[in-house]
Design brief:
Elements (H helix, E strand, L loop, with lengths): L1 E4 L2 E7 L7 H10 L1 H7 L3 E6 L3 E6 L4 E5 L2
Parallel strand pairs: 2-3
Antiparallel strand pairs: 1-2, 3-4, 4-5
Length: 68
């Protein structure tokens, strides 16, 4: 599934969860300033779990953020 974040489509892979966590994911992406500051322009895909998300950038970096 793709979501729009900063006017750019981001691929989301659901791992042990479903689309019901998309609003929580978007909220976490907008509010995690450290992660967004480092990955906002290069965010490529997200692996979404029930309590966290792993963000992957185009340059090979990744970050984990909690989902509440």
């Amino acid at each position: 599934m793709n979501i729009l974040f900063n006017m750019k489509p981001i691929t989301v892979h659901f791992i042990g969860t479903d689309h019901k966590l998309i609003p929580s994911l978007i909220h976490a992406l907008r509010n995690n300033k450290f992660t967004i500051m480092n990955l906002v322009h290069s965010l490529e895909r997200v692996d979404l779990f029930s309590s966290e998300a792993i963000l992957y950038s185009k340059d090979g970096n990744k970050a984990r953020i909690p989902i509440f």
